[in-house]
Amino acid sequence: MADLFELVKAAAETEDPVAVATVIEGPNTGSKLVLRPGEELAGTLGHPDLDRVVARDMAGELAAGRTGVRHYGEHGEAREDTVAVFIESFAPPPQMVIFGAVDFTAALARVAKVLGYRVTVCDARPVFATPARFPVADAVVVKWPNDLLDEIGASLGPRDAVCVLTHDNKFDVPAIQGALVTEVGYIGVMGSRKTHDSRTGRLREAGVTDAELARLMSPVGLDIGARTPEETAVSICAEIIAQRAGRAAPNLKEGDGAIH
Amino acid sequence: MNDLSRWRAAGKSSAVARVVRLEGSGPRDPGAAMAVCEDGSVVGSVSGGCVEGAVVEEALQIIQTGERRMVSFGYSDDEAFAVGLTCGGTIHLFIEPFDW
């Protein structure tokens, strides 16, 4: 069985998606099945029919990034519960793409890393977009925003975030337009109310619709009185979490619902 | 995972506890994991610190016996000093020897 762990560990190290199913109750408790999309299944839960049914569910759970318990019959029967299988998804980390190589970017990259994001910093100006200025970033790219988004836009999904911190219309408008055609879950755009108003005008002129404008978190961040780059980074990341969770982000003290 | 590899390479036995199910309020979602080495080293966590001590005890026992099993922790209302989650939920853990 020792090979299974090595397979999972190798996939985790290369950030390739992998799902592990373990029988936690029923016959063959402890037996495991490992699914890597596009690769052969490894291990067995004790019966080929059970393996086949569980593998199908693993693929679905992995695509959704979910981890939890499912029940089956001994041969994979759907309406039985003799076998409880724990399916763990190890999805690649979510991505954050930050446009604009400014001080706020360095702080945001640090906070995003704490939250487990793979961080890419992009700016068209080679003087500012250097790995030395953003040592925690996974990639620092010198490109125009639309060029980078043409390349990686298709890989952005609901768990990912794009933050536009340039607050220069020349960069902002193509970055926002490029982000709006992706499936990215969060688009935050920095700037004062004044910058926001003038940028909204520019975006409309460029053909951005009201529905698209509504998708933008602009001005970016929660209203926590953030001043410094670090505080602003916390306010942005808190907004990302709240948006993903569908919460309005008031103080917990003011509410009475469940915390988790 | 690196710790598990390191312990294995050093010839030490270990066990892994994972949150598989949560009822009601609980601090960590399914998938949260904690690994315990026979020498007493611990990595990861399965709650906000409420049940980790008890999980280490269970894991050390499981390293000895080699028997994998489910262990649940609920709210310890009536027994003030018993182990439980203070947030009112119940967590179900699967603890198994690291033999795969």
Walk me through the structure.
With 260 residues, chain A is α/β, with parallel strands linked by helices. Chain A is 37% helix and 20% strand. Chain A is built from 8 helices and 11 strands. In chain A, the strands form 2 sheets. Chain A has a 6-stranded parallel beta sheet, sandwiched between helices. A 5-stranded antiparallel beta sheet of chain A has the order 3-2-1-5-4, sandwiched between helices. In chain A, strand 1 and strand 2 form a beta hairpin. Chain B is an alpha+beta fold and 100 residues long. Chain B has one domain. Chain B has helices at residues 2-9, 52-65; strands spanning 14-23, 33-37, 42-44, 69-73, 90-97. In chain B, a hairpin with a 4-residue loop joins strand 2 and strand 3 (42-44). Chain B is elongated. The mean pLDDT of chain B is 87. The interface between A and B is medium-sized, with 22 and 22 residues.
By oligomeric state, this entry counts as: heterodimer
Query: Could you tell me the number of beta strands of chain B?
Result: 5
**Proportion of residues in helical segments of chain A:** 25-40%
Q: Tell me the fraction of residues in β-strands of chain A, as a range.
A: 15-25%
CATH class category name of the largest domain in chain A: Alpha Beta
Structural class of chain B: alpha+beta
Rg over CA atoms of chain B: 13 Å
Radius of gyration of chain A: 22 Å
Number of domains of chain B: 1
Q: Which chains have the largest interface?
A: A-B, 22 and 22 residues
